[in-house]
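Input record (one chain):
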Amino acid sequence: MPIEFAERIRRIPAYPVAGGYAEEERLVRLASNESPYPPLGAVREAIARALDTLNRYPDPANSLLRQRLSDRYGVPVSRIAIGNGSCDILLAAGEALLEPGAELVYAWPSFSVYPHLAAASGARAVTVPLDARERHDLQAMLREITVATRLVLVCNPNNPTSTAVPIAEIAGFLAEVPRHACVIVDEAYCEFNTLDDADTSLDLLAHHPNLILLRTFSKVHGLCGLRVGFALCGSDELPHALDQVRQPFFCNALAQAAALEALAHQYAVEDRVIRTVAERGSVEERLRALGLEPADSQANFCWFHLGQERDEQEIMRGLRERGVLVRGGSALGSDTPALRATYGLPRENTRFLDALAEVL
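The corresponding structure, as predicted from the sequence alone:
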């Protein structure tokens, strides 16, 4: 008799991971929205210093990291949660808030982890199409919120479409969301958003105890490989609930050391943002020269449709044959052929665009 797994295992979709990890050749990796810049020297030194402590468990409360985040963002320590990447916090929110009979509302296409929350909990997922500009349609999302809604997700800037809505619109949205529904504004890419200062959304926390601002060290700080995310919350109850449903020691010692040091180098972060935004403009200009129209990117990646007559998989194969890895839109929720490509170093972006021109 075969092993019998829980019903939810059959419901949970497989996360669409990027390929190429086993390749030994030097590839241009633009598939995972990673930073092309390695950790700062001071961050690497902090990691090295922490190596001697690996015979001990890390601080289970992430005390010092939460205090430094509190100092940086002006949010009380009791309202800050740490995670093994922001995905860890998302999944914990699903476990803490959702159950059969509850509802989860989010836009689609959006971050590929979101469907896992309803599937794992047995809650009902309510997906709302993006607007004509591939941004969140906040008014349409409001119309889907009911007494059964426990969790609402707003990805801003949105992954995979790279678009964002102004914080003023999110503030208006939050003012109309009933207090029984928790709202997570997923801001993994907020530092790259030129519509608003990255700190603008912090003011919303004082007015909405049901709000979570979700952020990460993976993107702008270049710490994908260590997995550190954090949540700034509108109430003490939210971090407490998130911690209740997770294993202890979920953020390892090296990750905590790296994140602490990274926080001390905001000017370096700003420099990387400036360089990324400059590459964003250059890449978008060349895409238009190829007859492609990218979405209005406010992130560290671009999103563009290929046209119904083109074969998305064939184009991706052609790019891979030329040593370039990007993501296909079909795996990310697009109904039409599309690609998502991270902005890399100038030479990587040139190689990508030259390869794309050949394939097209």
